Amino acid sequence: MQAFQLVAPQQPPELREVPVPEPGPGQLLVKVGGAGACHSDLHLMEAPTERLGRVPFTLGHENAGWVEKLGPGATGFAPGDPVLVYGPWGCGTCANCRLGMENYCEATGGLGGGLAGNDGGMAPYLLVPATRFLIPLGSLDPRAAAPLSDAALTSYHAVKRSLHLLGPGSTAVVIGAGGLGQMAIQILRALSSSTTVVAVDTAADKLATAARMGADETLLSGDEAVTRIKDITRGQGAQLVLDMVGVDPTLRMAAQVARVRGHLTIVGLGGGAVPVNFASPPHECSVASPYWGFIGELMEVVSLAQAGKIQMLVEYFPLERAGEAYRLLHEGKISGRAVITPNG
Ligand SMILES: [Zn+2]
Ligand SMILES: [Zn+2]
What we know:
Number of helices: 11
Bound molecules: zinc ion
Radius of gyration: 20 Å
Order of helices and strands: EEEHHEEEHEEHHEHEHEHEHEEHEHE
Shape: globular
Strand content: 15-25%
Oligomer: single chain
Structural class: alpha/beta
């Protein structure tokens, strides 16, 4: 089969001929419906050798498809079942993995297929090491559902950990209304109907999308946005600020609009930094950088999608055009998520 692989550090990925994997004991082979092209892959493509792990490997850590074949002893699924693949593949036995927090596995660091030398889903077939990484999709189309496993789960986890702050009268600010930001807005809307959701972006068209997704206020980035958020919150700032971009200017803004005892959560991989000292961010405001999410949370994400409460704007690309999908992503021309469909 053809696979879209990272072949060497700091070189563009290539389509290469590889064998179809054979599932070993407890493993499964998944026929890939969709494999999302994620911003973090762009960082991988630029990463030095020591961060890459073994090359070559197949890209694609956001996958869904149909069970094709079960290895010896694998149970609980049947060929043809539509499934979502939980991405961070932990050891399964450390304390964090036993709590379903395989994104924080003490042994693997929560890296899965399509990351750090493991083959991912940008190929017709994906080898999944254990049945616990599969979540039944029910009536959802695996091609459209693939972004649930990273874009949606990452946003969901970032919101859920702060949900206790988002009661009536609260405000949540989402900085960056691209794919992940749009998802965060829908999740905020679904999990906390009483919180005021504010979206901030540099692009007016993304703000229009944010409003459609349920944002109460949409603000163009700048000093006026800070002033407006201060007005909405009676000068106190927002309980939750999600920075989906993570560059210096957005983090600076995040620190300005967070409140005492609030949460400033860095989701974006922009590589910026936020100075933390006695004066800023506000007193007892927690700064956190969550990574991906928990298995149980992914099941909740699937429930939200099945109920029609969250939806990703998806653009499909055949495997031969995977390189083009990443180029468009790099140029900021993908408005939701680019999904590679290796089986058409
Ligand atoms: Zn990702
Ligand atoms: Zn583990």
